[in-house]
Structure formats: C-alpha cells, structure tokens
Amino acid sequence: MKRIILIALCLACFTGTVSAYGLYLSCPESIQAGLPLKCSIDSDFPAGTTFNIVFYQTQYTSTEVSRQPITIQDNQVTQYKLLDTEGLPGGNYKVEVQYTGGDEPRLRSDSKTLQLVKLIDRSGDITITSPMTQILEDALRIEGSIYKLGNGGVKIEVRGPDGVTLRDEWIGTKEQVQNGAGIFTKQVPVISAGDYDVIFTDQKGYIGMKTFHVGSTATQVITTVPTITAVKTTKAPLTTAPTPWPTATKSPLSPLTAFAALAGAGLGAVFVMKRN
Questions:
Q1: Architecture category of domain 16-120 in CATH
Q2: Do domains 16-120 and 124-215 have the same CATH topology?
Q3: Using one digit for the tens of pLDDT, what is the confidence trace for 123-155?
Q4: Domain ranges of the chain
Q5: Dist CA 195 CA 179 (whole Å)
Q6: How far apart, in whole angstroms, are the C-alpha atoms of residue 127 and residue 147?
Q7: Does the reported pTM lie above 0.90?
Q8: Which CATH architecture fits 124-215?
Q9: Signed CA dihedral, 142, 145, 147, 149: sign only
Q10: What's the CA gap between 178 and 110, in Å, rounded?
C-alpha cells in the first residue's frame, strides 16, 4: 500500500514538472538614459506562445512607456528586444513579461519575468557654449564643456540630414581649473542645412545628445511689382475772361469848338426851314 502511494506521489510530481514551463527575462540593471535597453528572453514554452514585453517607469506609480510582443519559435532560441529610452528622464524603471493568453500558464519556480532597471541621465553634464543655431558657411562649430571630465577626452558622433557626418572620433579636453570640467572644441564641416545631432560619450559610457540647427545663408529675394493706382482728378474748366473793349476817352471840348458846333446846327435848321 505504501509503495502504491509513493508511486502516485512520484507520478504527480512528474506530471507537475512537465506541465510547468520556464521563462527567463534578463536586462541590464542600469543603463545611460538615451541608449537602447537590450533585454533577452529564454523560454521552453510551445512554439507560437506569445508574450508582451512591457516597459514601465516607476518613479511614484508605474506608468507604461512601451509594449512589444514576442512569440516563441520552433527552435526556442534566445530572443532579444530593444527598448527605446531616448528622451526619458533618469530614474527607476522595470521590464515585465506578460502572458497574452486566457489562462495564466504555470511557471517553474526559477522563472524570472520581472527586471528592475535604473536609467542614469548624464545629459545635464554637457554645457554647450557655441551657438545652437548656426549659418551654413560657419557650421558646424561644437564648443563647450563636460562636468568634471578634466583631461579625459570625449568621443563625439555627428548625425545630420545626409546621415553620419562624423563617426566616433575622440577629441581632447582641457581641464578647467575652477570646477574640473573638460573643455572641448571641434569644427565639423557640413554641406547641408538642417538639424545635426551630436552624441557625446566618455570612458564611462554614453553622456547625452545635443541638437544643432544649421540654416542656409541664401536669402530669398522677393520681387514686388508695385501696383499703380490711377488717381482720378477733377479739374474745374478754365474760364476765359472776355477781352474788354477799349474805353473811349472823353476829351474836354474847347469853347471855340463848341461854338462852331452850335453854329453849324443853327445853319442846318435854317436850311431845312427854307426848303419847306
């Protein structure tokens, strides 16, 4: 009887072991903010089983950042997912594997479905002193300092509208006596206007990214055709004043002329009476 009970317990244990699956999530415990977070997933679940890889920010409450599906393949090979952290602030985050089916599967006790991650934000360590907006003929001038970098040097990469302009070049830094910052300067010739992302890295890893805007120096000439508006002016007709007749000038008559005239008039009257 005891042997029967023992065999039954063994069979139960064997059955339970077979029905449980393993699921193993692995991510870095910390990473520089802005870099992709690379996580691996291993599992012996049947091919076709689908999970979601969910990325959360856990500052005060859990806030979902992104969600990606992952499906187990026939060979059950290790799969990788890249989680974007660009633009995220530094702080605490977590990655979780969530089953998408109806019934939660039974997992083996050594399975790992949750990973805490810390994002380290060093972008505030970069101070840019050259203009963030530059003209094409002077661009691209990259000048500034990195907090407490000293003479350690910094690696920069420049990406613009035409692709990678400068790839992973180390430039020397000069220690600033006042605060130990590392001062850098670099002139990178560019041929196109647009936005240029400058990525900074040091011996500790990724620091941050700064974006410069380069504008074209060509000025657009706008030709404006002046509009001529005819102004209608009403003029009063010219009035021509009539030419006045010459005014007769009366000359005073002498007494002799008056007497002669009276005498002539008298003779004329006598002549008329005689005829009658």
A1: Sandwich (2.60)
A2: yes
A3: 899 999 999 999 999 999 999 999 999 999 999
A4: 16-120, 124-215
A5: 31
A6: 8
A7: no
A8: Sandwich (2.60)
A9: positive
A10: 53
